[in-house]
Amino acid sequence: MWLDASISFELSKDGDSGVAPSADPTYRVGRIDAANKVLVSVTPDSTLQQATTLMLANDFSQLPVMTGPRDVKGAVSWKTIGARLALKRPCAKVRDCMESAHVVSADDSLGTVISKIAVHDYVLVQAKDRQITGIVTASDLNAQFQSLADPFLLVGEIESGVRLLLHGKFTVEDLKSAKAPGDDGRAIQSPSDLTFGEYVRLLEPESRWQQLKLEVDRVTFLEQLSRVREIRNDVMHFDPDGLDLSDLVFLREFAGFLKRLRDVGAI
Prior knowledge:
Elements (H helix, E strand, L loop, with lengths): L47 H11 L3 E7 L2 E7 H9 L7 H4 L5 E3 L4 H11 L1 E5 L5 E6 H29 L5 H6 L18 H8 L2 H7 L5 H19 L8 H19 L4
Parallel strand pairs: 3-4
Antiparallel strand pairs: 1-2, 4-5
Helix pairs in contact: 5-9, 5-10, 7-9
């Protein structure tokens, strides 16, 4: 989990999706799935055994301590339990082992909440009506960021694979001929200067395809490459809710296909 690391993605080329921008571009913590899940909690009078059983059964590191959906009394965790037991302090009831809870608004930006989760390991998310709607942990952030990063990484892997496939197979003039009409000012010297759409345009003629000496079906390959181009446009316009699962699966499969071609020496 890299809470302090900077991650950047290069956005370039290949058109606009035409989707109108959101009136509120802020990514709020209330949009995370975990912030809207049924909450498992205990009361101050719950026994330590009840709390630890719930944490073990659900693989939780902490539980909110509540007497109602809007009434937070604190939080109990393996850390608070362990500290008290190690110091031989009384810890029969949850009230003996709990600490103050860390609560944020569902409308808080994720950027401001990340630092709090880094310090406290979790936050409770509170809606406008003051009801606690969920708990977001460091593990939840890791899963959320992975779902957002995976498409970028897969598109990058696929693009590198396609460039390797094209490397040394075509002249600069061949590559220039695939350039999008009206884009005369852009210099083309190698496959890395082409967009996904231009990869497709380059390989559409049968004579060009034959230059690859690749024993796979041209039409099928180009259809899949075209779909990668469409998904790439969606990825680069960044939907904070993540990519459709079917598109993510397709990217993984196509990246795996290119890897298999490399592994057998076809590329």
